[in-house]
Amino acid sequence: MLSFWEQESYIKADYIVVGGGITGLSTAIEIKEKRPSARVLVLERGLFPSGASTRNAGFACFGSLTELLVDRQAMGSERAFQLVEERWRGLQKLRQRLGDSRIGYHQWGGYELIREEERDCLEQIEAVNEWLHPLFRQPIFSERKEQLSVFGFSRQRVQTLIYNPLEGQVHTGQLMQALAACARAVGVEVLTGVQVERIEEEASGVAVVALDPARKSEVPFRAEKVAICTNAFARQFLPNLDLQPGRGQVLLTAPVADLPFRGTFHLEEGYYYFRNIGKRIMLGGGRNLDFKTETTTHISLNNSIQEALDRLLQEVILPGRPVAVEQRWAGIMAFGPVKEPVVHQQGNRIAVGVRLGGMGVAIGSRLAERLAALLLIG
Ligand SMILES: Cc1cc2nc3c(=O)[nH]c(=O)nc-3n(C[C@H](O)[C@H](O)[C@H](O)COP(=O)(O)OP(=O)(O)OC[C@H]3O[C@@H](n4cnc5c(N)ncnc54)[C@H](O)[C@@H]3O)c2cc1C
Question: Is there an atom of ligand 1 within 6 Å of 361 CB?
Fold first, then answer.
């Protein structure tokens, strides 16, 4: 039972965005900026975002050399280039919208650790730089073998390094707080702790039925149009969507005295990644060790993957320098048969923007532009 006041002021909106991660908040901001008089409401099931956006590694990146070579092979040159462009332009948009200092952005460059079996990629550096030239107007990748001894990585396991000067990193928590503040500043309303159960398009609007934990009953929100931004959880509303959840595991070390490197680092076509957070090392990946178990929306740790991360840390990244691991966590991403995200209209009043893979920091803002454009037509 809702009061007159609740019906008048709470449950009706012009636009409802379901999911309060980086895509949902960015979409709400886009809509509100273009339609300032509209009531734009974000419904998020967690007390704060509870998927990937507050749990990721904060790489502001557009692909390591081996990752791009694999993408070119799998997607073809044109589509792979477009994806790099989306990632790059998305990062520029994010930085411009929120400001580098508010999101803890540092462009300390990125490196890829190259093993013996990947050495062939060195011959491709020039061709890849030429391929990317229309976008960056400067060579992106270069070999930096001399940095190996500076950084102290295992010489048995790492043959050389490839450097990308345009790669950066963000403070993921600060980014999401800044995005939420930006949403509030433009007049977006965000309700948290609201689990949306059903979304039903009707002739005159969309019914968005949510669970209210306090009343233990359903609340029938209503909007002219709805954006679904629930990423890995989207099959709740769209069971036929070509999307699989993919859990990502990370660990965080205690501060390391005289940490010899800073920046972002990739290994094995991006399946592993690490960076500095101050003097700490954040290391993640290893989904490829156990794809079956990691195809889940359940946020929990996988011991065998965590043990593999421990070994990588001790044997390759900091060989001979034991360091304590202070935190471990997991987050849920979404993947599909192709690497591009899903952005499409569903009926006349609903648009879907999901499946951001491990690229959401970079492409979230661009996806939001496209999603808002779909909803604002008409
Ligand atoms: C460990 C890890 C490391 C990563 N590292 C990077 C990185 O370095 N760089 C990078 O670019 N990307 C990285 N990613 C990927 C990136 O975090 C995601 O692509 C991005 O956060 C996706 O944002 P999103 O808003 O689309 O989805 P999410 O952040 O998952 O947001 C979806 C939201 O929908 C909410 N929701 C779900 N169902 C409902 C419902 N029924 N009702 C209401 N709300 C609901 C969820 O609680 C969630 O908050 C990483 C991801 C993980 C897990």
Answer: yes
